[in-house]
Design a protein that fits this description.
Elements (H helix, E strand, L loop, with lengths): L19 H4 L7 E9 L2 H11 L17 E6 L1 H6 L4 H4 L4 H5 L5 H4 L21 E7 L2 H16 L4 E10 L57 H4 L3 E10 L1 H10 L4 H12 L17 H4 L11 H4 L10 H5 L16 E7 L16 E8 L3 H12 L22 E5 L6 E6 L3 E11 L2 H8 L4
């Protein structure tokens, strides 16, 4: 379906009330920082929110370059409780959010090395109350945003920073595994945010922002009162360590030349390192295509690659965004906005042994339905293969593997099956958060309970 078919939106979002962190695309290059705060006194927590409000932007990009850096503030269910939100409001949030990510670990594949018992403190504990992030195209503007954030919490005795993480785009512009990231972004009806694939119609606003109809034609369940829920959304925030040496060792072990190694890696990801998609460039990397935002996401699967001989059905990008591919289920009900940001140093090119450094990504996954968006993608698309007819197979890059599984790569005359798959990523921590609208943040800051 062409995006041009829905040029006239049926809804108009209250963009200025939606935190910039919800819909605004990540800059490139970028630098940023994440903070986790604990609220020890509810009155101090509310006072901190009042001080923080001027630093939190709403809307999309504007003409003022100072607003190219922005801060966002999200709150966990425990955080809402710590701020003194009334019981009836707390109970109006959906069950996954109330339970928290750690309690849902088995469902989403956080087992083994990724088990919450092994997470980095304070993740998975009742101490995580607020998650504040700041993002900018450069260090100078980031520092201005951070000054406003620091002023808010440093002047408040009953709020403590208990975790922080610096993030930055690597000089290569790629992830720690060596691939360009941040290419695909859904269009959102009524937002002014254009999708990166001109062949896909925008998704209904209610898939991402509360208070508007979603793809089913219904309003997503919204926390009460309306001032708290409207224009908010949910975040799955995750710290994911990448096992770069293990990734390189596996590729080397299962190929006989650098060219074969590059192709196998692309088959597992679904793109070449430059970002060029296999569907459009199946035989070799194409840096010009990968660097062209008008073309590098302009493709569907059914017409160009229905059987997966170019991009395997089990490749990472095809699993988490099947587009128009033939799958079991309706793909449009399971989209998320994904913000991936890199932390830690790169492993030097060609090194095959782990150097002990912590590196990976801080992932923020945004949607109005935690269960049928983030959790569904993790449980059904990443850690199972039934929806594409590969029962028992998992995402070769993001799936939880125990060293015994397999991954199918279609090819002629005989398909290839990778064996003894290890895990290349480890969850180091995560939380489900609510990203309130700006009016909701003010409501929280002015509570009197």
């Amino acid at each position: 379906m062409s995006a041009e078919a829905t040029d006239v939106p049926s809804v108009s979002l209250e963009i200025d009330d939606i935190q910039s962190g919800a819909l605004r695309p990540r800059p490139s290059p970028y630098v940023g920082k994440f903070f986790v705060l604990r609220v020890d006194d509810r009155r101090d927590g509310r006072a901190m929110l009042r001080r923080l409000l001027p630093a939190v932007d709403g809307g999309l990009a504007g003409a003022d370059p100072d607003h190219d850096a922005w801060a966002s503030v999200a709150v966990t269910h425990q955080g809402l409780r710590a701020l003194g939100v009334p019981r009836d409001s707390l109970d109006s949030f959906p069950l996954p959010f109330r339970q928290g990510m750690a309690a849902r670990a088995e469902l989403i594949g956080d087992v083994g090395e990724s088990d919450p018992a092994r997470w980095e403190p304070p993740f998975g504990t009742s101490d995580v109350h607020l998650v504040v992030s700041a993002l900018s195209p450069d260090a100078a503007r980031l520092e201005k945003a951070l000054e406003r954030v620091r002023t808010a919490y440093q002047e408040t005795s009953g709020v403590e920073v208990i975790w922080q993480q610096d993030i930055r785009q690597l000089p290569t512009g790629r992830t720690t595994l060596g691939f360009r990231d941040g290419i695909s972004h859904p269009g959102i009806e009524g937002s002014g945010v254009l999708g990166t694939n001109p062949q896909e119609a925008p998704l209904k606003a209610g898939e991402f922002i509360l208070g508007y109809p979603d793809e089913t034609g219904n309003l997503p369940p919204m926390p009460q009162p309306d001032v708290l829920g409207r224009n908010g959304t949910y975040l799955a925030v995750r710290k994911i360590h990448t096992k770069v040496a293990a990734w390189r060792q596996y590729l080397t072990k299962n190929t006989s030349s650098p060219e074969e190694e590059a192709l196998l890696a692309a088959k597992m990801i679904g793109r070449w390192p430059s970002g060029a998609p296999l569907t459009l460039s199946p035989d070799h990397d194409d840096a010009e295509l990968g660097n062209d935002p008008r073309r590098n996401n302009d493709f569907l699967y059914r017409e160009n690659d229905d059987r997966g001989f170019r991009c395997p059905a089990g490749a990472h990008i095809r699993r988490v965004n099947p587009r128009d591919a033939d799958i079991i289920g309706a793909a449009r009900l399971h989209h998320i906005i994904r913000r991936g940001t890199t932390y830690g140093p790169p492993l030097p090119e060609g090194v095959l042994e782990d150097d002990g450094a912590d590196r990976g990504l801080i992932g923020v996954f945004i949607g109005a339905h935690l269960d049928r968006q983030f959790e569904f993608i993790k449980s059904e698309w990443v850690n199972d293969g039934n929806f594409i007819g590969y029962s028992g197979e998992k995402d070769p890059v993001a799936g939880h593997h125990d060293g015994t599984g397999s991954v199918t790569i279609p090819q002629r005359p005989i398909r290839r099956r990778l064996q003894d798959m290890p895990s290349f990523v480890v969850t180091r921590g995560g939380e489900y958060c609510f990203l309130p609208g700006l009016r909701a943040l003010r409501w929280l800051s002015e509570l009197d309970t």
